[in-house]
């Protein structure tokens, strides 16, 4: 190969062969480590170390994807590869090491049918203790209607989950600040929802008898 010399670099995600004329950092501008490392820690996490910083400078998109996945799902690398990619079968167990001298045994018991929201209850054992979690099945479409949420000025929503027992105003009514707008019934108790400010009732989105979740839009004021 003459003067050509290859350098083998072993990375977390596999093997990369670079020639000295095509280094992975060849496209980078000079780096002010003191300044940029502090900015990196502020954006991602104060516990990110210098190796993480170098990974980010070389592969910014890959590092951001990894970091977001880590923040959302935690240290999934502790799971065995087969369990992570293909999930556990019923009554299958895995042994997971979560730290030095710290181990857990996970056994999948069963997965319940999806409810109207497309959510399944997953039952499993964690070190012999039965646990259950709700998991949204992304392959199913929820059949339960979803109400619009409060997202702007003049919108009054449900402060808690329940049933609208009574709407005390109608479209076009002028209302005063703190005037009762509607009642919500939950746990055999009624909660009065009042106008946050004076105004006119522009629209009534949900009516008496409708079931609501927290922050569902009920009335719009103008």
**Helix percentage range:** 10-25%
Query: Could you name the ranges where pLDDT drops below 50 across 5 or more consecutive residues?
Result: 1-19
Q: What is the C-alpha radius of gyration, as a whole number of Å?
A: 28 Å
* Averaged pLDDT: 85
Identify the strand order in the major beta sheet: 3-4-5-6
Assembly type of the shown chains? single chain
Brief digest:
Helices cover 18% and strands 36% of the residues.
Task: Describe the fold and architecture.
This protein has helices spanning 33-43, 50-58, 60-73, 81-86, and strands at residues 7-11, 14-18, 93-99, 102-111, 119-126, 129-136, 155-157, 162-167, 174-175, 180-186, 189-194, 199-204, 211-212, 217-221. With 222 residues, the chain is of the alpha+beta class. It folds into three domains: 7-73, no CATH class; 78-136, pyruvate carboxylase f1077a mutant fold (Roll), CATH 3.10.600; 155-221, OB fold (Dihydrolipoamide Acetyltransferase, E2P), CATH 2.40.50.100. Strands 3-4-5-6 form a four-stranded antiparallel beta sheet, with no helix packed on it. Strands 7-14-12-9 form a four-stranded antiparallel beta sheet, with no helix packed on it. Helix 2 packs across helix 3. The longest helix has 14 residues, at 60-73. The chain is flat and about 70 Å long.
């Amino acid at each position: 190969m003459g003067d050509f010399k290859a350098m083998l670099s072993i990375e977390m995600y596999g093997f990369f062969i670079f020639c000295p004329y095509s280094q992975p950092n060849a496209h980078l501008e000079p780096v002010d480590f003191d300044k940029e490392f502090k900015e990196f820690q502020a954006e991602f996490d104060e516990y990110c170390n210098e190796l993480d910083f170098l990974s980010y400078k070389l592969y910014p998109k890959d590092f951001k994807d990894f970091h977001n996945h880590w923040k959302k799902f935690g240290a999934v690398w502790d799971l065995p590869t087969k369990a992570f990619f293909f999930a556990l079968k019923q009554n299958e167990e895995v042994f997971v090491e979560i730290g030095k001298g710290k181990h857990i045994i996970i056994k999948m018991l069963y997965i319940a049918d999806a409810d109207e929201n497309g959510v399944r209850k997953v039952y499993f054992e964690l070190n012999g203790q039965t646990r259950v979690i709700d998991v949204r099945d992304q392959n199913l479409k929820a059949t339960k209607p979803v109400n619009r949420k409060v997202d702007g000025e003049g919108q009054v929503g449900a402060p808690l989950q329940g049933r609208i027992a009574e709407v005390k105003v109608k479209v076009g009514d002028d209302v005063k600040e703190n005037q009762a707008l509607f009642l919500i019934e939950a746990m055999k108790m009624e909660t009065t929802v009042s106008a946050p400010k004076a105004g006119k009732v522009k629209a009534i989105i949900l009516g008496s008898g409708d079931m609501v979740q927290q922050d569902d839009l009920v009335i719009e004021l103008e």
